[in-house]
Amino acid sequence: MSAFFMYYIYIIYSLRDHSKAILIIFFSLFITLSSVFGQTVIHASDYGVRSNSFENASTAVPKAIDACKGKRDAVLMLPGGRIDIWREGATKRELYISNSTEDDDLPKVKNIAFLFEDCKNITPDGNNTVVVLHRKMVSFAILNSSNIKIRNIHFKG
To answer: Is the CB of residue 144 less than 8 Å from the CB of residue 118?
Structure first.
């Protein structure tokens, strides 16, 4: 333990009422541990992703992903059920994917359902969501990112 922490415990424990001192110590530890080990849950439904609505979620998904950026350890929770994503409004990036862009006649700009770019420590949790991609799209693209863990998402094209 650091000297500061030991001094902090000494000051608190020197209070006359030891039960208050112990309570303050445990409360301080709880706050510290919850901020170190806690995850931030971002609900995609708060950004416009609606399950079983057949609405185009292509503009709402990037907003939810952006809300996860900068968080220590974020979980992007999809609403469960079915969400639909169309090319119209989807994020577009020039990507070179083996076995699909070697012909110069094929477009290099891809429509992407879930783009994680410049992201760290995000876990998209599908909550057993079925993502329906309408027309030709890339389901996930992870660019210049680290520690992205994908869970419980199913795709149907």
So the answer is: yes
In angstroms, the Cα distances linking 68 to 5, 75, 84, 133 are 32, 8, 21, 23
- Backbone φ and ψ for 152, nearest 5 degrees, come out as 55, 35
Distance CA 59, CA 56 (A): 8
142/34: higher pLDDT? 142
Q: At residue 125, what are phi and psi to the nearest 5 degrees?
A: -110, 115
Contact 52, 99 (CB under 8 A): no
| Strands, E assignment, 7-137 | 40-43, 74-77, 82-86, 91-94, 109-117, 120-134
Q: Name the pTM for this structure.
A: 0.73
The pLDDT value given to residue 12: 60
Q: How far is CA 76 from the centre of its chain?
A: 3
Let me know the angle formed at the C-alpha of 89 by 85 and 95, rounded to the nearest 5 degrees.
85
